[in-house]
Amino acid sequence: MAMKARIESAFVMFDVVYTDGSRRSNRKVPATALLGFEGDDAAKAVIEAQDREISLASGRPSGEIRTIERTPPKPEPIPLARKK
User: Fold this and answer.
1) What share of the chain is helix, strand, coil (3-state, %, to 5)?
2) Which helix (H) or strand (E) segment is 55 a member of?
3) Sign of CA dihedral 67, 23, 34, 72
4) Quick one: pLDDT at residue 31?
5) What are 72-81's contacts with CB under 8 Å, separation 24+?
6) Which of these, 43, 37, 38, lies nearest to 13 by C-alpha position?
7) How are beta strands 65-70 and 23-30 bridged, if at all?
8) Across the chain, what does the average pLDDT equal?
9) Which residues pair with 30 in a beta bridge?
10) Which of 21, 34, 60, 74 is the most buried (most CB within 10 A)?
11) What is the pLDDT of residue 81?
12) What pLDDT is attached to residue 7?
């Protein structure tokens, strides 16, 4: 059987802090949304749209966003030494 073509799915992760002090980490934003002139400012619009969908589904309003910053990359794992 032929292998199915994989769809390119690249995301950029953001940490979001709301005005009430709550924090949500690792919010996914499609990398294609960040290609324009706005850069990371476009991520705020995407995350606000996600928040609206979440608040409609849950019935609880989401807070106003205070800051958005990219999640720092995870450090590379340190390889373990093999015993001989």
Assistant:
1) 25, 25, 50
2) helix 41-58
3) positive
4) 87
5) none
6) 43
7) unpaired
8) 85
9) 11
10) 34
11) 75
12) 54
Q: Using CA atoms of 74, 51, 17, 45 in order, give the dihedral in degrees to the nearest 10.
A: 80
| Cα 38 from Cα 33, distance rounded (Å) | 9
What's the token pair of residue 37?
A: 């002139």
* 65 beta partners: 18
Q: How far apart are CA 69 and CA 84, in angstroms?
A: 45
Q: Are 44 and 65 in contact (CB under 8 A)?
A: yes
What is the tens place of the pLDDT at every residue in 21-39?
999 988 999 988 888 777 7
Residues in the chain: 84
Residues paired with residue 17 on neighbouring β-strands, in sequence order: 23, 67
